[in-house]
Write a structure and sequence with these properties.
Elements lengths: L4 E6 L3 H14 L3 E7 L2 H10 L4 E5 L7 H11 L4 E6 L4 H7 L6 E4 L4 H24 L10 H15 L6 H8 L3 H12 L3 H16 L7 H7 L5 H12 L3 H15 L1
Parallel strand pairs: 1-2, 1-3, 3-4, 4-5
Helix pairs in contact: 2-3, 6-8
């Protein structure tokens, strides 16, 4: 697999789109155009299946405009960087798009020097993200794939399970929307993140219940539950018995062996 950042171009004029693709790859070899779409709706479906690193999108298109696409990305896939392509007539719309987290905008016809600078800025930003991934113990060769995102999330849960932790906290930490995070976690793990967090915590709790020196309240606090009742409810939901019943079963088993 080559170490390049995947790019999607959304432009309803195919000849223009192909020309833009050629210039992007010529100006910066770190980027590779992996898809060209003629409207925002088709592009969005493709992005949901395999998020690219960057989307270059025109504003005026049929079915779904570039602004609508940018708004969807900002809401549900904020880690995908978006660059607006615009003519002079749509310049004010391009400025409006900056409210949707758009990284930059370029005037058509493209100026190679401006494109070069935008790509350089994008590359530096993506390199910073890659460094963050590596510091979290996740190997990344290019843009994040859904399994890589989930791996990153699971590592974060492992390091922070004993703290106050929920879906919104994780989403804010990594710059994802909670809805997108849930969607990809479900796709990769066949369960929502909340269920995975509970299962991970209860797995640790089950091990700790073997230690007679720890009270159930201490164990609850260790796995991130300030409320022992909430902890007991979660444990029973996971294993079918309460922590007290599980601890008693361990003690009974130990007694029968003596």
């Amino acid at each position: 697999m080559d170490n390049k950042y995947p790019v999607i171009i959304v432009e309803d004029e195919n000849l223009i789109a192909r020309n833009i693709a050629k210039h992007i790859e010529a100006e910066n070899s770190s980027f590779k155009v992996v898809g060209i779409y003629s409207n925002g709706e088709d592009a969005l479906e493709a992005i949901k299946k395999q998020p690219p690193a960057v989307v270059f999108t025109d504003i005026s298109m049929p079915v779904m405009s570039g602004l609508e696409l940018a708004a969807e990305l900002y809401k549900n896939m904020s880690h995908v960087k978006c660059v607006i392509l615009t003519g002079y007539a749509d310049f004010e719309f391009a400025r409006e798009a900056l409210h949707y987290g758009v990284k930059d905008y370029l005037l058509k016809p493209l100026d190679n020097e401006e494109l070069h600078q935008v790509l350089k800025n994008l590359e530096l930003s993506l390199i910073d993200i890659s460094k963050q991934m590596k510091s979290e113990g996740v190997s990344t060769e290019s843009a994040l794939t859904p399994p890589e995102i989930v791996s990153l999330i699971k590592d974060y849960i492992k390091d922070h399970y004993s703290e106050e932790l929920d879906l919104n906290t994780i989403a804010r930490h990594f710059g994802f929307s909670s809805s997108y995070l849930t969607k990809i976690f479900n796709k990769v793990e066949n369960m929502p993140p909340s269920k995975y967090i509970r299962g991970y915590r209860m797995g640790i709790a089950k091990q700790l219940l073997n230690d007679n020196n720890l009270t159930i309240q201490q164990i609850a606090q260790h796995v991130g539950y300030n409320d022992p009742f909430h902890f007991s409810k979660s444990f029973k939901l996971t294993y079918g018995i309460s922590p007290t019943e599980y601890k008693a079963s361990i003690q009974n088993s130990a007694s029968s062996k003596d």
